TrEMBL record:
Name of the protein described by the UniProt record: Bacitracin transport ATP-binding protein BcrA
One MF annotation (Gene Ontology) recorded for this entry: ATP hydrolysis activity
Keywords: ATP-binding, Nucleotide-binding, Transport
Pfam family, one: ABC_tran
Amino acid sequence: MTKQVTLAVKELRKTIRGKEIIKGISFELREGEVFGFLGPNGAGKTTTIRMLVGLIRPTSGTVAICGYDLHHRFTEAIRHIGCIVENPEMYPYLTGWENLEHFARMMPEVGEERIMEVTKLVGLEQRIHDRVSTYSLGMRQRLGIAQALLGKPKVLILDEPTNGLDPAGIREMRAFIRFLAETEGLSVLVSSHLLSEIQLMCDRVAIMAKGRLLAVDTVERLLKEQARVVWKADPVDKARALLAEETEVLRANEEIIVTPYEPAKLAAWNTKLIRAGVAVAQIEPRLPTLEDLFIELTGGETID
């Protein structure tokens, strides 16, 4: 069964002082998925996120949240989205519970019962009545997410949710985000500079550079498309010429030949080389990491 689209972005553009910053990007989030949003410095991620949550208006294009157009039906649309940007700002001299009460007063129909629900959801029952100044960074992140969940949103946007956490905290946050998607059915958009975490956490990713989306797909499919095979053969020049008749030779030198990874054809290519008198010493498939893919697509730009 096709899952419901909770966030639909179509041909979104933003021009600032005559310069087009966001150049017609389109993507969708579906119920129960974690969606990674990646890009180097200046790619336009922050500007895009600000448009998604209504902080700035796009020059053109549309943002629809649970079917409501953000521009024309702002109130109905925005009630379905929650957002945390980096380290959430809380009142340190108040308890976690008092902070949530403060934010709940701004929302109709959010009372103590919902505060207790989100407290349990983020696992802060034992510390919710302690002052926030005594919380670890991971606990403050969870409290921030609890605040974002008060209004029962369908879409949760997390900008750098693991920023500043130690390895154990990062692992815990990753598991928690997966729990929100899989158990609670939220659509979670995660912007992060930790590509290894995005690779482990996300169902799909969007890679952005210079205001454009370069790729949107599952991590598995994106990496498979960039998979390579490294050949070691002698004589290498003859092997390169024979392989070039069958596939693209991406790189070659005096020691190795690199071709795309096409597992169904490898055996036939190998047989061709052997029958032509080429000694094949190694056929090594190499699946890139998300970091490798990111660098290749963005031309080596540094991520935020």
